[in-house]
Amino acid sequence: ALTDRLSRLVKTMRGQARITESNVQDMLREVRMALLEADVALPVVRDFIARVKEKALGAEVVGSLTPGQALVGIVNKELAATMGEVDPATGAVKPPADINLAAQPPAVILMAGLQGAGKTTTTAKLAKHLIEKRKKKVLTVSADVYRPAAIEQLKTVSKQAGAEWFPSTATDKPVAIATAALDHARRHYFDVLLVDTAGRLAIDEALMKEIAELHAAVKPVETLFVVDAMQGQDAINTAKAFKEALPLTGIVLTKTDGDSRGGAALSVRQITGAPIKFAGVSEKIDGLEVFDAQRHAGRVLGMGDIVALVEEVQKGVDVAAAQKLADKLKSGDNFDLNDFLAQISQMKKMGGLSGLMDKLPTQMTGGKAANIGQADMDRAERDVRRMEGIINSMTPLERRKPELLKATRKRRIAAGAGVQVQDVNRLLNQFDQMQGMMKKMKGGGLMKMMKRMGG
Ligand code: GDP
Ligand code: MG
Q1: What distance in angstroms lies between residue 227's CA and the mean position of ligand 1's atoms?
Q2: pLDDT by residue (tens digit) across 30-78?
Q3: How many angstroms separate the CA atoms of 104 and 256, rounded?
Q4: Rounded distance, CA 4 to CA 453, Å?
Q5: CA angle 95, 101, 106 (to 5 degrees)
Q6: Residues 73, 453: Cα–Cα separation, whole Å
Q7: DSSP 3-state assignment of 266?
Q8: Could you point out which of 25, 283, 340, 441 has its C-alpha 20 to 30 Å from the C-alpha of 396?
Q9: Residue 283 CB less than 6 A away from ligand 1
Q10: 418 is an annotated ligand-binding site residue
Q11: Contacts of 212 (CB under 8 A, 6+ apart)
């Protein structure tokens, strides 16, 4: 599979300190494939890759990461920044704004999108959200005059949402229905009017004209484009057509509970420029969540595991210390118990062995991750804590030259750490082995070592 190839590349690029013109090409080709496989439209992919390349070239590779992993981190960050919105103050992706209701009540929300995209369902979900979270009095109306069943459907789901529903008849004109509902909402002091509309299976001139007229008649404060996350490459054309017809203010991405990678989000966001506000996560009336660009990015790329690992390394590891350590590892000879202790404490920052093993893709752990039970993990974590206690009980000199340790000192150390002398001896043996391993792998990194220690 594609992600396997990408993972393989992530591994083969190990040992190179920077992302360069030459090592980035193969990686970017795979990222490009990953995005196309996730159904991101080609022109959007091209743009995106160009931006990533610019950001990646010459980027420092932090700590124990390979350039490949670092690149996946950059791609993921750029994906999240593109699908979401970056807070200029912090540089982090911020959650989208809730539905804008800043209008003379009733605030009108117009729902647009292809047939089957999930407009009617989302209308009810939003009604429930506005009633429960924003304490608003909400009216719904259907302007889908082509399918009487659609009007009934809105009635049913509105009731489930606890919203009032304004009756409409299939023989009326959409604009007449919507203005009647607006008038009713005004006279009965509704805060919000949600206008559900008709869709077509494909974009069609008449439909676009009709919804533009509706928009002019009801002057919505929000015009939401409802789009199916499972829609493939064609999402780009749909988004273009709706953007031309209407000033879109937001996007709702539905059916994210399906098994698609949801690349439509990237295309639609880039084409419309409108924020993705919500994601539909089930058919049920409460199946609506605030859109999480970070989470969705991991899914589009299909490399959530590596992404999570990269993030932990970036936030948990002291870069300077990691670099110093890496330098020592390369020489192998002067790796002492102080470094061993530093390794252990870095490992703890990364969420310990169990957290780490969970995150490593099986390709990187040789398929063993799944076979390591919780009991093994717990034992490994206990061992690590014990080792730390023992090393802490040594003097700095002893940590640098453990071969100096005599039986009496070992007893003192054991007593200080609350362990047996044999535990101290075991630690010294492990340290010996690790020092030998270091020399062999010549700076192969933290990951390998932790694998050994965990397994
Ligand atoms: P409309 O034609 O745009 O009004 O689309 P509908 O609201 O009638 O939805 C079409 C189908 O998609 C229905 O069967 C819905 O139950 C389903 N649907 C809508 N949103 C979601 C969602 O987020 N998750 C899932 N699983 N199904 C959804
Ligand atoms: Mg409908």
Answers
A1: 10
A2: 888 888 888 899 999 999 999 998 888 867 666 666 677 778 888 888 9
A3: 33
A4: 25
A5: 155
A6: 26
A7: helix
A8: 441
A9: yes
A10: no
A11: 245, 246
Sorted by where each starts, the structural domains of the chain and their CATH numbers stand as 2-92 (1.20.120.140), 107-291 (3.40.50.300), 317-454 (1.10.260.30)
Residue type at 90 in one-letter notation: T
209 marked as part of a ligand binding site? no
Of the listed ligands, the closest to the CA of 254 is: 1
304 CB within 6 A, ligand 1: no
ipTM for the whole complex: 0.99
Count the residues in the chain: 455
Give the residue whose CA is nearest to atom 16 of ligand 1.
Answer: 283
pTM: 0.69
Shortest CA distance to 102 belongs to which of 246, 252, 221, 225? Answer: 221
Determine the Cα–Cα distance for residues 74 and 28; give it in Å rounded to an integer.
Answer: 11
- What does the buried/exposed string (b/e) look like for 219-255 if buried means 16 or more CB atoms within 10 Å of the residue's CB? ebbbbbbbbbbbbeeebbebbbbbbebbebbbbbbbb
Return d(Cα 85, Cα 275) in angstroms, integer: 8
Tokens of 399: 């940590």
Distance of CA 122 from the midpoint of ligand 2 (Å): 9
16 lines ligand 1 (CB under 6 A): no
Compute CA distances 441 → 15, 140, 179, 340, 375, whole Å.
11, 66, 74, 16, 29
The owner of tokens 């590892």 is: 329
Pocket test residue of 140, 152, 254 for ligand 1, highest count of atoms within 8 A of CB: 254
Q: Is any ligand 1 atom within 6 A of the Cβ of residue 443?
A: no
- Closest to 348 measured CA to CA, from 304, 311, 380: 380
**Which alpha helices (H) appear in 148-263, and where do they start and end?**
148-161, 174-187, 205-218, 235-245
Task: Indicate whether residue 132 lines ligand 1 (CB < 6 A).
Answer: no
What pLDDT score was predicted for residue 447? Answer: 46
Query: Which tokens is 316 given?
Result: 């948990």
- The residue type of 149 is A
